[in-house]
Write a structure and sequence with these properties.
Length: about 270
C-alpha cells in the first residue's frame, strides 16, 4: 500500500459513503488534518486504524490494502499477509525518514545555538567593525574578542547607568554636567554648547568589559579596566531638526579605581 495510491482510493470511497473528512475523522477519533494528509498521499494511517477504517467504508482490510475493490475478498490469506507486511514496511520506512528529519533539525538547532553562544561570548565581529590600525592599537582591539566574564559585565553596569543618564541630560550648564558626570559630560547636550536642544535620542550598547582581578592586569602593565561601547546620539530643536549628533560610534572607555575603591571613568578613546 503506497500513499499515492491509497489517497485517491480513500477519497473515492469516503465520498461514495457521503462522508466528509471531518465526519470520517470523528468516527476514527483522529483529526480532520490527518484524514486530509491520507487523501493527499502525504502519509498512511496507523495499522491499528485499518480494520476500523475498512469497516466504516464497508471494505475488507485486503481491499483497503490493495486500494481497490475485489470480487473475492476472502481470497488468498497469504496475499493479505504479504500486503500487511508491505504496508508495515512502508510505515516503518516513513517513520525512519521522520526520525532522520527530526535528528537533522535537532542537529541544526543545536549547531545554531552553539554558534550563537560562541558569537555572544567571543564577538569577533566587533573587532572587524573597529579595525583601524592607524588609530586603535592592537591590544585595544583584542579586548573586543571576548565579551568579558559575568563579573566584568556586572562591574560595568554602574558606569553604563551613569552614561545613560549623561546621554539623556539636556539644558544644564557644562560646569554642572562635568560635576555630575565627569568625562561622561561630553555626551550631555548642555545649554552652553547647544542652547536650542530640547529633545535627545540615543542608543547605547555595552560591547565588552574587562576588569582586573587578583592582581592581574588587563592591558599587561596597569590596573586599569576597559569598556567598549557603541552608541548613536542626536539632539533636536523645537522644530525637530538635528542640532548635533553622532552615528554608530565605537568608543573605548578606560576606568581606574578611586581612593574609595570605586571604578571611575579616566579616559575615552574614539576615532576622530
Amino acid at each position: 500500500m503506497e500513499p499515492v495510491k491509497f489517497g485517491p482510493f480513500l477519497r473515492e470511497e469516503r465520498t461514495a459513503r457521503q462522508l466528509t473528512q471531518t465526519q470520517l475523522a470523528e468516527l476514527l477519533h483522529v483529526t480532520p488534518a490527518a484524514v486530509s494528509k491520507w487523501e493527499r498521499g502525504k502519509c498512511l494511517p496507523d495499522l491499528s486504524k485499518l480494520e476500523e477504517l475498512a469497516e466504516i467504508l464497508q471494505l475488507s482490510v485486503l481491499e483497503l490494502l490493495r486500494c481497490e475493490r475485489i470480487s473475492e475478498p476472502e481470497e488468498a490469506q497469504q496475499e493479505q499477509i504479504q500486503i500487511y507486511r508491505e504496508t508495515l514496511q512502508t510505515e516503518q520506512r516513513q517513520e525512519r525518514e521522520k526520525n532522520r528529519r527530526r535528528r537533522r533539525i535537532g542537529l541544526l538547532i543545536l549547531s545554531a545555538a552553539v554558534l550563537a553562544l560562541l558569537l555572544y561570548r567571543f564577538p569577533i565581529y566587533y573587532a572587524l567593525r573597529v579595525w583601524q590600525p592607524s588609530y586603535f592599537e592592537t591590544g585595544e582591539i583584542q579586548l573586543l574578542l571576548s565579551r568579558g566574564s559575568p563579573r566584568d559585565l556586572r562591574l560595568a553596569r554602574e558606569t553604563m547607568e551613569l552614561a545613560e543618564e549623561a546621554f539623556s541630560t539636556l539644558q544644564i550648564s557644562s560646569a554642572e554636567a562635568e560635576e555630575r558626570f565627569g568625562l561622561l559630560a561630553r555626551y550631555c547636550s548642555d545649554r552652553d554648547h547647544y542652547p536650542e536642544a530640547v529633545e535627545e535620542r540615543h542608543s547605547l550598547a555595552l560591547w565588552t568589559a574587562h576588569f582586573p582581578e587578583n592582581g592581574d592586569s588587563v592591558d599587561g602593565y596597569s590596573g586599569s579596566a576597559y569598556i567598549w561601547v557603541f552608541y548613536t546620539q542626536k539632539a533636536l530643536d523645537r522644530e525637530g531638526k538635528t542640532v548635533c549628533g553622532s552615528m554608530n560610534i565605537p568608543a573605548l572607555w578606560r576606568l581606574e579605581r578611586s581612593s574609595g575603591g570605586e571604578w571611575v571613568l579616566a579616559g575615552i578613546k574614539e576615532h576622530p
